[in-house]
């Protein structure tokens, strides 16, 4: 069994989705501790000390984000949980909410206390309506226990917590688009600054945090930020939920201590158990579809020849030339039978579909990339298309209001960087490349 | 299809739910409830959002119809045209394709004799490839109404189709 399990410690306890069992296994102790023995700023301080970084993908320190909230203006403050999990390859928040909903509810109450928010929201992607019903039941149970509502546990702190759906838009995972959506509008991201901590929901100070980040808060309050910081490696403190998909023997959600080697994660029986059918590993998108794809050899070892670790720093070692990012922890493994062009085309289609249309480089560029990739994949590409594709991606990158443009550009740029021979083979061998199941093979990158 | 002469109004239970959604937001911020209420409206009124339904939702929220329309046309879960009673929303993004999503989409299309985006002649089934539904480790998968169906195989599709045929009702998600 994995050590230091924090979030999924009780995942196999029967009935852990109910209030009674959650409470019996130590749940809501952090709430009691925070409300009875700590000031809101002390709670924030512990989260800062923990080194917890935003688990949605950006990796920004959660405690620091909390400390930016404007407490002086006297405006109402909001804590909003971003449960709009939509990054391809990522399904850990859904798993957590579905199985241990109270972990999120408790974290939301503690976090709201730290921020001085009296009204908070969990924004869940609309497709997960059944998760919303699970969360609503958990919220009702917390109200019945006196953990939500007026004067919680006699502390004088009031909180109303609501769960509310999105309606199908990847862009609403971007925090300002999510806020627009909560206001009942299209999910068009806002220009920053002002940041939500100053002007967020209804123009009021708002913190938006990922599900996993908020769910980590109770353990931090119970055990102290310093204890949390002892887990993990360097600035990658604590544990991370990894969503493992693709060609792995055992796909699923795993909680790992940050710093675990990529090799152990893929091949040990404790985690993914290796590649299906005993195949060789060809490539991997290690942190959700937006991060650069790596060939297997560079996934397992850095360019310097060091073992690659599951941490923010190790995965990004080598920058975008030879590294990638931990991102959301969406770990998509591709074996030797995978066609990189085909896979990239499906991602390009995704970003084109999900672009909100506000910025021209993204609205137009994602469409171009999808079209060019469609041509190459279907045997109508030319050699110059490959450079055109790269050029379009460079014109999108850095030229949009929100990071969706970068997220669309990076997979394209990295796939061409590492698999250019495969794109060229598609163009020069259209008949072979368009056969069902065809995949270009370069032994030197397979592991 | 809606009868255009029929007055569009929520049933008492749906109206109570709509009020509950509105009450989740602060005084004067009724518009925030538009996302939830559109889901409910779609489930109540034949599985799609007609202009009349959108006007009704606007009147409930005291906002302009265009404010409802711009939301209804932005988010992928809303339909502004009639759909089959059961919409097979099959994920077609990368991770699902690695594990056979395209074969499943092809199988469903052949079984129903329709192309992606089309509805069977009897109005029962629509095939709609969609983008990532956050179930990548359980691929291939699809959503039908409230439910996720994972680890799909042709046999599982056959079973579900028989089940839906015997239920024969509009299946849409709302909270």
Structure explained in plain terms:
The complex is a heterodimer of chains A (447) and B (175). With 447 residues, chain A is of the alpha/beta class. Chain A has three domains: 19-230, Rossmann fold (3-Layer(aba) Sandwich); 234-335, Ubiquitin-like (UB roll) (Roll), CATH 3.10.20; 340-445, de novo design (two linked rop proteins). In chain A, 43% of the residues lie in helices and 12% in strands. Chain A has 19 helices and eleven strands. In chain A, the strands form three sheets. In chain A, strands 8-7-11-9-10 form a five-stranded mixed beta sheet. In chain A, strands 3-2-1-4 form a four-stranded parallel beta sheet, with helices on both faces. In chain A, strands 5-6 form a two-stranded antiparallel sheet. In chain A, strand 7 and strand 8 form a beta hairpin. In chain A, helix 2 (29-37) runs parallel beside helix 6 (101-115). The longest helix of chain A has 25 residues, at 404-428. Chain A is globular and about 75 Å long. Chain A starts with 18 loop residues before the first helix and ends in a 14-residue tail after the last helix. The mean pLDDT of chain A is 97. Chain B starts with 11 loop residues before the first helix and ends in an 8-residue tail after the last helix. Chain B is elongated. The mean pLDDT of chain B is 95. Chain B contains seven helices and four strands. With 175 residues, chain B is of the alpha+beta class. Chain B has a four-stranded mixed beta sheet with strand order 2-1-3-4, with helices on one face. Chain B folds into two domains: 12-72, Arc Repressor Mutant, subunit A (Orthogonal Bundle), CATH 1.10.10; 86-167, Glutaredoxin. In chain B, 41% of the residues lie in helices and 10% in strands. In chain B, strand 3 and strand 4 form a beta hairpin. Chain B has helices spanning 12-22, 34-44, 51-61, 65-72, 94-98, 101-112, 154-167, and strands at 86-91, 125-130, 142-144, 147-149. In chain B, helix 1 runs antiparallel to helix 2, helix 2 packs across helix 3 (51-61) and helix 3 (51-61) packs across helix 4. The chains are: A alpha/beta (447), B alpha+beta (175). At the A-B interface, helix 7, strand 3, strand 7, strand 11 and helix 15 of A face helix 2, helix 4 and helix 5 of B.
């Amino acid at each position: 069994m994995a050590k230091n399990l924090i979030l999924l410690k009780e995942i196999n306890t029967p009935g852990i989705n109910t209030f009674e069992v959650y409470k019996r296994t130590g749940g809501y102790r952090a709430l009691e501790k925070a409300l009875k023995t700590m000031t809101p700023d002390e709670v924030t301080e512990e989260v800062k000390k923990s080194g917890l970084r935003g688990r949605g993908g950006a990796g920004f320190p959660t405690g620091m984000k909390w400390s930016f909230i404007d407490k002086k203006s006297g405006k109402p403050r909001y804590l909003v949980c971003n449960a709009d999990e939509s990054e391809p390859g990522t399904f850990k928040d859904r798993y957590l909410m579905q199985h241990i909903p109270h972990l999120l509810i408790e974290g939301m109450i503690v976090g709201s206390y730290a921020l001085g928010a009296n009204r908070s929201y969990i924004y869940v992607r609309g497709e997960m309506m059944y998760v919303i019903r699970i969360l609503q039941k958990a919220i009702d149970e917390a109200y019945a226990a006196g953990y939500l509502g007026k004067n919680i546990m006699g502390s004088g702190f009031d909180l109303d917590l609501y769960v509310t759906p999105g309606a199908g838009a990847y862009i609403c995972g971007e925090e300002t688009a999510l806020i627009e959506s909560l206001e009942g509008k299209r999910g068009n991201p806002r220009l920053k600054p002002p940041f939500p901590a100053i002007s967020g929901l209804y123009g009021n100070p708002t913190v938006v945090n990922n599900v996993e980040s908020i769910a980590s808060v109770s353990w931090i309050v119970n055990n102290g930020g310093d204890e949390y910081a002892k887990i993990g490696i360097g600035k990658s403190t604590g544990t991370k939920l990894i969503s493992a998909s693709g060609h792995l023997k055992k796909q699923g959600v795993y909680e790992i201590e940050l710093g675990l080697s990529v090799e152990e994660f893929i091949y040990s029986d404790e985690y993914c158990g290796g590649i299906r059918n005993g195949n060789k590993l060809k490539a991997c998108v290690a942190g959700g579809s937006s991060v650069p794809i790596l060939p297997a050899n560079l996934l397992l070892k850095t360019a310097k020849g060091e073992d690659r670790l599951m941490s923010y720093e190790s995965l990004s070692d080598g920058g975008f030339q030879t590294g990638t990012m931990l991102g959301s922890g969406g770990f998509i493994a591709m074996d030797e039978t995978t066609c990189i062009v085909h896979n990239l085309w499906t991602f390009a289609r995704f970003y084109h579909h999900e672009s909100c249309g506000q910025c021209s480089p993204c609205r137009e560029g994602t469409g171009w990339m999808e079209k060019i990739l469609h041509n190459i994949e279907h045997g109508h590409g030319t050699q110059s298309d490959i450079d055109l594709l790269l050029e379009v991606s460079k014109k999108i990158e850095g030229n949009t209001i929100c990071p969706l443009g970068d997220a669309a550009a990076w997979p394209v740029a990295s796939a061409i960087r590492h698999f250019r021979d495969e794109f060229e083979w598609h163009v020069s061998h259209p008949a072979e490349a368009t056969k069902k199941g065809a995949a270009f093979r370069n032994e030197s990158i397979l592991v | 299809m809606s009868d255009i002469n029929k007055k569009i109004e929520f049933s008492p239970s749906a109206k109570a739910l709509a009020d509950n959604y509105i009450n989740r937001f602060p005084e004067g911020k009724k518009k925030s409830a538009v996302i939830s209420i559109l889901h409910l409206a779609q489930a109540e009124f034949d599985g799609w959002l007609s202009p009349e339904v959108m006007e009704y939702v606007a009147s409930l929220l005291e906002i302009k119809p265009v404010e409802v329309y711009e939301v209804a046309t932005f988010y992928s879960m809303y339909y502004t045209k009639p759909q089959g009673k059961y919409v097979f929303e099959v994920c077609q993004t990368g991770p699902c394709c690695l594990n056979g999503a395209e074969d499943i989409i092809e199988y469903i299309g052949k079984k129903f004799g329709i192309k992606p985006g089309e509805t069977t002649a009897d109005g029962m089934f629509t095939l709609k490839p969609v983008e990532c539904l956050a179930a990548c480790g359980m691929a291939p998968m699809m959503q039908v109404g409230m439910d996720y169906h994972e680890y799909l195989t042709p046999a599982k599709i056959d079973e579900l189709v028989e089940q839906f045929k015997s239920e024969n009702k509009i299946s849409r998600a709302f909270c």
